[in-house]
Design a protein that fits this description.
The protein is an all-alpha fold. It contains 15 helices and 2 strands. Helix content is 74%, strand content 1%. Helix 3 runs parallel beside helix 15, helix 7 packs antiparallel against helix 12 and helix 12 packs across helix 13.
Length: 395
């Protein structure tokens, strides 16, 4: 069976920039700031900054790999590392991404229960979402890239409106004193929350599928830089606003709750909540992308088509969300355990392994092309030698 499982369609560069912007900020602006503040307090921005820098470096490596790769990631991995090791890596990543998708789904559920309505029906939410993810799995990365490109202006407007609502309200001097309680809280936050970060290296699965334009790496870094500023600003405002109330912040607080507290805007009828729900579409884009990647990994490992691979992912998500981790708190506690080490595989090792495979694959194709050229040259010389011999005989 041919390994080109990821080559159904290609991404436009602008779609890649949109994906980078949305994926960088979506989950990081959701529940994780409320978790970090309980460990690091007002210094939570240091934890966020640490992971953002790591992720940006991983993106640089991933983009270089995308630029060098001449084939899809399945092909270059199998050529470089062999089929057994490739299957092992991809299977581990598939399990990790299914867990991470389950975490995002549980946080979206908690958002609606915590911020919107306590009578929110989980069944009404989960079924349409799973249908959406199934469609994303079958349609492929190009469809998700188009969706990201369409939604990006809407998401950007919602971010600007949220900024306008709160920019003049928080007391920014709450950033001081820095490291009031030492570095213990910051280090604890860095150790506990890697699962909530490291999303951009998933773009390695775009290898061989991006219609690259000039300076696409530079433009990609501009996109991630803008998104990083958004993440750091809103997260830092939450840290400053709740600096003296950090122990009162529960898992379920998010940027929307912070806006209400910071601006006292209950009088606006929770206009911020409507804006935040628009911004929430970015989480759906990232979830769809992770589902698509997980589907492609399952396709490669089990050699099945996209429909059955996607169906398997959806069933796994339903079981995980409804039976295995019925409590959101239980799931987030689990993600701070063993899965942290799988995050290292996805965030650090995946882009490095992809870059190595891209370099080796490109070199191999270059040697093959050189060998073919030499073979053609020898054929020409042989043919010419034969002609000269005939001419000699005739003389």
């Amino acid at each position: 069976m041919e390994n080109k499982l990821l080559s159904r369609e290609r991404l436009d560069s602008k779609q890649l920039y949109s994906l980078i912007f949305i994926i960088m900020m979506s989950v990081k602006m959701f529940m994780v700031p409320a978790l970090i503040i309980r460990d690091a307090g007002r210094d939570g921005y240091m934890v966020m900054s640490f992971y953002i820098v790591i992720e940006m470096l991983a993106l640089v490596v991933s983009l270089i790999a995308i630029k060098l790769a001449k084939s899809d990631i399945c092909t270059i991995f199998e050529r470089t590392y062999g089929k057994i090791l490739t299957v092992t890596i991809f299977l581990l990543l598939a399990f990790y991404y299914i867990l991470k998708i389950s975490l995002v789904i549980s946080e979206v559920k908690m958002f609606f229960l915590f911020s919107a309505s306590e009578e929110f029906s989980w069944e009404i939410y989960i079924l349409p979402l799973l249908v959406f993810l199934m469609v994303a799995a079958v349609k492929g990365l190009n469809g998700i890239g188009r969706l990201a490109q369409i939604l990006l202006p809407i998401i950007a407007v919602s971010i600007v409106l949220l900024f306008v609502l709160i920019v003049s309200k928080p007391d920014y001097t709450n950033i001081l004193p820095v490291l009031e309680n030492g570095t213990g809280g910051v280090m604890n936050g860095i150790k506990k929350y890697p699962v909530w970060f490291g999303d951009l290296p998933l773009l390695c699965f775009c290898c061989g599928r991006v219609k690259r334009e000039k300076r696409f790496i530079l433009k990609s870094m501009v996109s991630v830089a803008l998104s990083s500023v958004v993440v750091l600003y809103f997260s830092s405002v939450l840290f400053f606003v709740y600096a003296h109330l950090s122990k009162m912040v529960d898992y379920g607080h998010n940027i929307s709750n912070m806006v209400v507290y910071a601006s006292g805007n209950y009088m606006f009828g929770r206009f911020d909540l409507l804006i935040f729900c628009v911004w929430l579409t970015s989480v759906l884009v990232q979830t769809a992308y992770m589902t698509c990647v997980a589907t492609e990994l399952v396709r490669y490992v089990f050699r099945i088509n996209a429909f059955w691979a996607g169906a398997g992912i959806i069933v796994a998500l339903y079981i995980t969300s409804n039976f295995l981790f019925r409590s959101e708190v239980q799931l987030y506690n689990f993600c701070m355990g063993v899965p942290r080490y799988f995050a290292v595989l996805s965030t650090v090792l995946l882009p490095i392994l992809t870059l190595i495979a891209s370099v080796v694959s490109k070199k191999g194709e270059g040697d093959k092309g050189k060998a073919e050229f030499c073979g053609q040259e020898n054929t020409i010389l042989t043919a010419q030698g034969g002609d000269w011999a005939k001419q000699g005989e005739s003389l």
